[in-house]
Design goal:
The protein has 19 helices and ten strands. With 357 residues, it is α/β, with parallel strands linked by helices. It has two domains: 160 residues, 3-Layer(aba) Sandwich (Rossmann fold), CATH 3.40.50.300; 181 residues, no CATH class. Strands 1-10-2-9-6-3 form a six-stranded parallel beta sheet, sandwiched between helices. Helix 8 packs antiparallel against helix 13 and helix 11 packs across helix 13.
Length: 357
């Protein structure tokens, strides 16, 4: 029997986005939210994206770096009465999200002040504006991140959601932000999904997580290896995967439009490497289009989905949406991908061309 409570509170980034969107749409500023999860899973980034998508201001407050007077304010005497002068970084107008990030790293005295802010929406003489949400995030004790256990009185004021890593959510993020995640990273994680988040793999300083894979992509753009971001052991696997993708002899023929007799590999790792290589080695629009047309006639839908995901940046840059959609339309077995990738293919087109949806 499924644990319904766990299903409702342990969510992928995509599921969490949907849940938090409902809270924002309903204007429920009376429902403080606490996000739990391991380091690097994307808690802070998700809150920032939601604030931007809904046109909300975002005040990111790291109370672990503050002293009690920093949040309560500095006292002054007015007409023989001691008054507290709230800090300028607390919001006073408009609508937004007051985000208490890394709240579990704050010592108990600061969590006590946060308790007042969460419960009363006030600290001393300061009052949080009506249209501001109070959300928080932190690591769990088992994440070994030098955290303090949250007091039960404070915990009882929050709605609690735990974020779990999800390859599909990361691939969707990569497709939406092709300038931030290298195609080879997406292909490698499709091949080794267990390395999306693995704090036990690597050194004490560098290990794979959604955040560190984005940094690894930046390393690749700078001409570095991925080791400084995800650890030496993972880098060795990643390099071997990329080398296999670059050395498959059939890729050159496929990209020139002459791969009709080339079969789709049987070996799982070679399939991933081939799809990755088709995208990495396509240096102009026709080559990418030849590669995709070949794939639509040879491979199951999931491999075409992988291609579209890791090629999202090139498809948009070269306005290949209509031609990619036409290639999918030629194979009835792939018609579902037209609907699934409608957003990508509709955006990545020349305004003078029609997209066959």
């Amino acid at each position: 029997m499924k644990n319904t409570a766990e299903e409702n509170t342990v969510l992928t980034p995509r599921q969490l986005t949907e849940a938090l969107t409902k809270i924002l749409a309903a204007g429920r500023t009376d429902l403080p939210v606490m996000l739990w999860g391991p380091p690097g899973v994307g808690k802070s980034a998700l809150v920032g994206q939601l604030a931007g998508a809904h046109g909300l201001s975002l005040t990111d407050l790291r109370i672990s770096q503050l002293a009690p007077t920093d949040l309560r304010g500095v006292p002054s005497v007015r007409r023989t009465v001691t008054c507290w002068n709230p800090p300028e970084f607390l919001p006073r107008t408009g609508a937004g999200i007051l985000f208490l990030d890394e709240i579990t790293m704050a010592p108990p005295v600061m969590q006590g002040i946060a308790h007042q802010l969460v419960l009363d929406r006030a600290v001393g003489s300061y009052r949080l504006p009506e249209k501001w949400f109070v959300w928080a995030a932190g690591n769990r004790v088992e994440d070994r991140s030098a955290v303090y256990e949250m007091p039960k009185a404070l915990a009882n004021r929050f709605l609690h959601f735990e974020v779990k890593p999800c390859g599909r959510s990361f691939a969707e993020f990569a497709a939406a932000h092709p300038d931030r995640v290298d195609p080879a990273v997406v292909a490698f994680l499709h091949f080794r999904p267990d390395l999306l988040l693995d704090p036990g793999n690597g050194t004490a300083h560098a290990w794979p997580s959604p955040r560190s894979w984005e940094k690894a992509s930046a390393c690749l753009r700078a001409g570095l290896g991925v080791g400084p971001a995800v650890g030496r052991g993972v880098e060795i696997e990643f390099r071997a995967f990329v080398k296999m993708a670059d050395r498959l002899p059939s890729i050159g023929a496929i990209l020139k439009g002459g791969g009709g007799e080339v079969p789709f590999p049987e070996e799982f790792s070679e399939r991933h490497a081939l799809v990755c290589g088709l995208v990495r080695r396509a240096e102009e629009p026709d080559a990418l289009l030849h590669g995709f047309r070949w794939l639509t006639g040879k491979a199951a839908p999931e491999w075409n989905t992988l291609f579209l995901t890791i090629a999202a940046g090139a498809i948009g840059r070269w306005a290949l949406g209509p031609k990619m959609a036409a290639a999918l339309a030629q194979n009835p077995k792939l018609s579902g991908l037209l609907r699934q990738h409608r957003g990508l293919l509709a955006k990545a087109h020349d305004p003078d061309e029609d997209v066959p949806f």
